Amino acid sequence: MSDLGHVLVLAGGLSYEREVSLRSGRRVGEVLRAAGIDVETRDTDASLVPAVLADPPDVVFVTLHGGSGEDGAIRSVLELLDLPYVGAGPEACRIAFDKPVAKTMVRSVGVRTPESVVLPKETFHDLGASAVLARIIARLGLPLFVKPSHGGSALGASIVRKADELPAAMVGCFAYGDTALIEQYIEGVEVAVSVIDLGDGPTALPPVEIVADEGVYDYSARYTAGSTEFFAPARLKPEVAEACAQLAVTAHTALGLRDLSRTDLIVDTQGQPHFLEVNVAPGMTETSLLPMAVEAAGQDLGAICQGLLRNALHRAH
């Protein structure tokens, strides 16, 4: 029997990213079962708490994306149940999940991040949309990138290259959240850097370069096989790749994260990386970036998942 005992993988949930979460949970379950580990996968519905109280797992692997999976809520419940789990604690999750707050935190430790404006839907309507949008463009210029202040998988996100595209971008954003983050769009190479901590401190995996066929790494590009080209490791000069790695580890540390994270960034035409956002529950699907980075590092995803679970168990004892 594995030293990990009974592992519970949480997947699904009720966020817009439910289907992606189910795929992530399935993948983690598969690689753990292949290693002979006793794995159970559960959704986060009304049966969860009674089930784990009746038969508590030894450790939990959270593969919930968006909503309660990344905002700290489910992790707070796991702590109420005295269940060890992989990933950041509730407070760090709440900070990281709020993109404007996360940007402020990483900027305070010297990390570059695009200038931005945060605009709640109520303010947008109450003050007159056209006047507010005109001032945003006057302040930040064009192009812009609009996205919800919470959530992931690029849902509700879009590039604005012309002023008349901004109103529609805002409407699309507000369909997925009540607050919009509008930031300067930096032309460059889109890169994701995963960070893993197996007990010896956070370490960056090789950066993954993202080249979407349509030019935008949106929801479809993320989860439709063949619609995006990936380079792992990224086609960056060694010193630029190292700067990206340092940025991701700095963000991971500044935000108080643990075990694993993925930082999304843009490398501008001068070779300078800029922080965009961080994900506390990186995708584990066949097209997800962390598993690509693990493979590029010559490591095994199953072994990484086991190491993360052992780390969580050690914290509890």
Automatic annotation (TrEMBL):
GO MF: ATP binding; D-alanine-D-alanine ligase activity; metal ion binding
Occurrences of domain ATP-grasp (ranges): 103-310
Superkingdom of source: Bacteria
Signal sequence extent: none
Listed InterPro entries: ATP-grasp (IPR011761), ATP_grasp_subdomain_1 (IPR013815), D_ala_D_ala (IPR005905), Dala_Dala_lig_C (IPR011095), Dala_Dala_lig_N (IPR011127), PreATP-grasp_dom_sf (IPR016185)
Keywords: ATP-binding, Cell shape, Cell wall biogenesis/degradation, Cytoplasm, Ligase, Magnesium, Manganese, Metal-binding, Nucleotide-binding, Peptidoglycan synthesis
Cellular location(s): Cytoplasm
Textual note on the cofactor: Binds 2 magnesium or manganese ions per subunit.
Residues involved in Mg(2+) 1 binding: 264, 277
Catalytic activity: 2 D-alanine + ATP = D-alanyl-D-alanine + ADP + phosphate + H(+)
GO cellular component, as recorded: cytoplasm
Enzyme nomenclature, EC number: 6.3.2.4
Residues reported to bind Mg(2+) 2: 277, 279
Pathway: Cell wall biogenesis; peptidoglycan biosynthesis
Major subcellular location class: cytoplasm
Root EC class: ligase
One record GO biological process: regulation of cell shape
Pfam families referenced in this protein's UniProt entry, alphabetically: Dala_Dala_lig_C, Dala_Dala_lig_N
Cofactor requirement: Mg(2+); Mn(2+)
Entry-linked HAMAP family: Dala_Dala_lig (MF_00047)
Function summary: Cell wall formation.
Protein name per Swiss-Prot or TrEMBL: D-alanine--D-alanine ligase
Taxonomic source organism: Sphaerisporangium melleum
Gene designation: ddlA
